[in-house]
Every structure is written in structure tokens, then in C-alpha cells.
Amino acid sequence: MLDGGNCCTAVEADPQQPLILERAEKEPEKKCITVVSDRVKKHCSCSPEKVKSKILSFVPILQWLPRYKLKDWILGDIMSGLIVGILLVPQSIAYSLLASQDPIYGLYTSFFSSIIYAILGSSRHISVGIFGVLCLLVGQVVDRELAVAGYLPESSFGSNNSDALLAGQGNSSNVECDRSCYAITVGATVTFTAGIYQVLMGLLQVGFVSVYLSDSLLSGFATGASLTILTSQIKYLLGLNVPRAHGWFTLFKTWYSLLTNMAETNICDLITSLVCLAVLIPAKELNDRFKSKLKAPIPFELFVVVIATLASHFGHFNSKYGSGVAGVIPTGFAPPQLPAWTLIPNVAVDAFSIAIVGFAITVSLSEMFAKKHGYTVDANQEMYAIGFCNILPSFFRCFTTSAALTKTLVKESTGCQTQMSGLVTAAILLLVLLVIAPLFYSLQKCVLAVIIVVNLRGALRKFRDVPRMWRVNKIDASIWLITMATSALVNTELGLLVGVLVSAFFVLGRTQQAQVLELGRAASREHYENVSSYRGLQTHFGVAVFRYGAPIYYANQSLFKKSLYKCANLNPVKEKAQRLKFEKNKKQKGTEEGAKGMPEDKQNRESEASSSVILMLDEKSSRSVCSLVIDCSGILFLDTAGVNALKEVRKDYRELAVEVVLAQCNTSVLDSLERGGYYDSKKDGEVGKNNMIFFTIADAVSYVQNLNVPNGDCDNKS
User: Fold this and answer.
1) Could you tell me which residues come within 8 angstroms of residue 710 by beta carbon, excluding any fewer than 6 positions away?
2) Mean per-residue pLDDT, 143-156
3) Angle at CA 241, nearest 5°, toward 240 and 244?
4) Which of 121, 26, 21, 103 is nearest to 65 (CA)?
5) CA separation for the pair 80, 413 (Å, rounded)
6) What's the CA gap between 13 and 463, in Å, rounded?
7) Of 30, 42, 72, 97, which is most buried, counting CB atoms within 10 Å of its CB?
8) Domains recognised in the chain with CATH numbers
9) What pLDDT is recorded for position 687?
10) Where is the segment annotated Disordered (predicted)?
11) What is the DSSP letter of 497?
């Protein structure tokens, strides 16, 4: 039991008496100016120890590199870095196609992101680089801005269009900018803007945002985007020259373009695609099936790329059959350039959704592998790391990156111990950039599309899990299906927003669906549970015990009252209305009969009948339930409307001589009740009764039973 006063000591109660706990004294609330001042002092104060701590936390490599166990870790890091680097070469070139960029920019992106994350990342295992969903989002923005700028769709990957615009429209220097140049300018600007968003979120300490993006939401979004990616690659598999669709319903627009241009299929590209698919799909399945026995996955993609490049070069597929090829891939690095500041307003909204997706994927993967291997990661530091993996490379003509599940799994399974493996991967990519890249001139675009399609197997397999997800949790399955369908059929970015809104809707919906449950006491001990869920529970005569399993706030307070009245089988509002109506009719009838001169004995009989009806109403309401005990253990919080709802319930039932008491309230609910004036006894003129809050249901039941005995309203029986 809790009294309305505030105390700071605990009292040991008599076992026969209700449990009494006295609240500890609360710390006085600080003014906003004081709170802000304290936080500024905390974060802006400077000392050598604090500077060192900040630097070490911001640059994690300074923490783990001095403690690096060379003999134990170096072999695993070299092996995993080497394997991931080999896998990244064909994938970097392929995903450049998805981002509407030349192959060299995919290699740049993977190289710089591997180095920067190794320095700033707090996860030991994730592989940061090109991710298919982000490439799709970037590619959609690039194609849209190319169309706005007046560039025609390119006819071959890596070739330069004859149409050129002055760089002043999208670049910072006064030189001509062809289609390829403008495409990477847009891509780098989107990447820079997304990185700025991510760093700002890190500065604002909003890493907790990732918890609001559930696994079902992210999985549905990735699967829906995978369907869009698959559709976008069909034109390369068939060798068709159709522009990428923009706006909403791109899936339908793309398939319409494919079907109308099907007669123009390039037979050489089609045959090459079928052969590569016939090789890579079984090869990937073998890798998956025997991954426990293989020390490292076999790089079939690299083998296919090498063989296909040789076949295309010596077979002259480009000149003889018109097959699209990668074209010239230069060596070395281009000089850094600034983003196109004038493009930022055009891409700011797109960059925000890209930033959220990249951050969510990176944090979820880093936390998953950290938990698996027994260490912790800082979500805000991951925000900084992935943000700078986008900001700094954007000056070197790179596009957006994040963690990628497939490469992370490969990295972990091949013995990775630290981010030293990321530096080894960067060394492999550097070798390709400086020496090997030009050798991929004759590589067909359809081969790159095959690599992209084959790597979508994991996301597309999620469709097989839908029945299982539906059996386990229908709400999560619904979120997955809605997010997937919106991302695939309507718009990719909209799918993420719809997924977040649907998740929030379901959370709110659960609070709207909560029902008041009647509780009964177990026969062997003082424990109360739902009488409709368990057998053998006993109820108390004259005392009804109810539980509500949701917060009571403005959106569901009326539903709470409605559910309580229904469960108690006693609606005080209707009871009062019936009594008032009866009294009014009685008074009106008495006046009419008196005016008509009705005999006195007949008036007495009518009065006795009226009294009998009132007694029946009293028997129906008060005799069946004399007291209500509300178990508040499931009520997490109350707002003003929730407090008012409880006050109204207590007041309405008290007018029917039914006492309402609360039990097992948490401290948050108690504080809300106190601030809301629930304990204000002077208001109702009932001193002491309003201040009774109980810590156990048994104490509350015992209290109201003792109240009923002196009044003679109810028999004190269990």
C-alpha cells in the first residue's frame, strides 16, 4: 500500500497487513537552462585524458592495432581479405552497371570504403563496399538527373556519348562533361549528401533510430528492391537497349518496354547469359552446400569473368554481333573534385532515404556479428564510419556504400579476426586499379548482369519463408509483405517509408486492441491470472479484479473504459441514465396523477412499484459488484487523458456505491497519477480513500472486502 505523501525510507510490514512501501525522495527537477549548461560542460570540457579517449573512440584502429596478435590473427585476416578482394573485383564492375556508372568507379568505391571503414569502423567482421539496393537507388537518381539535363540514354556501357554539356551545369570546372562524367558527378553528389546526413545523425546521437527498423521491414525492403534489380538487369541479359524507367510503378514500365522490344534481342548476349547462368547458379549452390568443408569459397565469378572476357575478345563479340562491352577502363586515380553544389537541392530527399538504408543495414549487420562473436559495437560510431565512407570517397568519384551481407559472411567464414582484412582487400583492389583493370575491356555487360542476378538468390529465397513467417507472427509477416510489395511494385524509396509507417500503425494498433481481462486467484497461492485462459481460478464474491495490458493514453482511453464496463457487466453511465430517466418519468407521472385526482391507495401502490424497480436496479448494479480492483502491472505509462479516464471511472462507479482501487502500479504510473490529481481527496470529499494504492492484488482485495463488511453491502467470501 502507498500513501499519498512522499517519504524516503522503506517500512517492513506485518505479514497480516498490506505491503507498505514509502517512496524515496525525488531529486528536484532541474531547469532547462541548467540541464543544457551541464551537458555543454560535460561534452565541451577538455582534459588530456578526455581528448585521448575521444580520439581513440573516434578512430578505433588506434585501439586494436597496438594490441594486434600477429601470430594468431594475421593468417586469417590475409586469407579473408584476399578472398573478399577477389570476389569484389567482378562484383564492383557489375554493380557499377546497376548504379549507371562506368566500371572504374565501382572499383574506386570498393577500394576507398575498405580503407576508411578499417580505420573508423567498430565492427571486426563486416565488409563495407558496394551493396545492390543502394546501387539501385543511386542509379535511379542518376538516370533521372541525366534525363533532366538532356542526356540521351547510352547505347553501350562505358562508351562516351557525342552529346556534351558544359560542366558548369553539374561540375565545378569549365570543361566539357560528357554523359559518363555527369553521371558520376550526380552519383558523387548523392553520396556526399548521404554521408553528411549520416555524420549529422551521429553527432546528434540518433544511432538508436536503427531499433525502429525491424528485421521484417528491412528484409521486405531488400526483397522488394531485389525484384526491381532483377527486372532492371533483364535488358542486359537480352542485349536490349531500353531506357531505365523513372517514377512510380517502374517494375510495370520496365516489363512493358522489355516485352515491346523483345524482337530486338541480341542472340549473342542471350546465349552468353544462358551459359553463364548455367555455370554460376550450380556453382553458387555447391559453394553454399559445401561451405562447411571448404576453407574458402571458390571464386567462380572471377573464373567466369576471365573466361567470358577472353571469349569476347578473341570472338570479336562487340564488332561482329553488336554485344555491349565494358569498354575502356583506365588505370590509376583521377584527381579529386568537389561535388556539384547546385545538384544538392535536387538530390537531397533521395540522399536521405539512401542514408537511412545504408546506416540501417550497416548497424544491423555489425550488431548481429558482434553479438555472435562476443563483443560490442557503437551504433553512433558506425554512423560516423559509414558517413565518412561516403563523404571522403565522393571527392574521388565514388558512389554510396554500406555493409553487405554476402561478403560479410564470406569474410567471417574465411577466418577474419579484425579489420586488417579490409586493408588486405584494399591492396587487392589497388593492384587491379593500377595494373589489371584495362584487361576487362571486352567483358560483356550481360556477364555483369548475370553476376548481379545470381547474387540476388538470397533475397529472393525469402519468398519461401513467407508461410513460416505467417505461422510464427502474422504482424511481422504482414509488414514484410506490405514493404516488399510497395518497394517492388510502386516505388523503392516509398517502400521504406510505407514499411516504417505500417510498423508504427501495427504498434499503435496493438494498444487499440488491448482488452480488459477478468482475473481469478489460484487455489494454492496468492497469484491472479486471466480466468478465460486458465482453469481452476477462483473469483471473489462482490469484488471483481481486472487487468489492462496496454498504456492508457489519448488514443485508447475511451476504448479502455468501454472494455472495462463491458467486462464488469456494469456500465455506470448507462445505469445513471436509466435511474435519472426512471426518476423523471416517476415524477412526471405523479404530477399528472395528482392533477387528475387519483385515489391515495392507488398512488401508494404505484409508489411501491416504483420503489421495487429502483431496488431491482440497485440489486443489478451494486449487489453483484461492490468493488473493482484494477491490476495496473501491464500499464506502462499514462498521459493526461489516461489519468482523467481513471478518475472518471472511479467517480462514475462511486456514484453507484462501487469502490475502485488500483494495484501494482509502476513508479511512472504513480507519478502520472500524482501529477494528474488522482490523489486529490478534497476534490471528491472522500478523505483517505483516494490515496490508497496497493502493491499486490491480494492486499487490494483484502482492503475492499473489509470496506464492504461494515457497510453490509457484500458478504466477505472468496
Assistant:
1) none
2) 76
3) 110
4) 121
5) 8
6) 59
7) 97
8) 70-150+179-508 (no CATH), 515-580+619-682+689-708 (3.30.750.24)
9) 38
10) 581-609
11) H
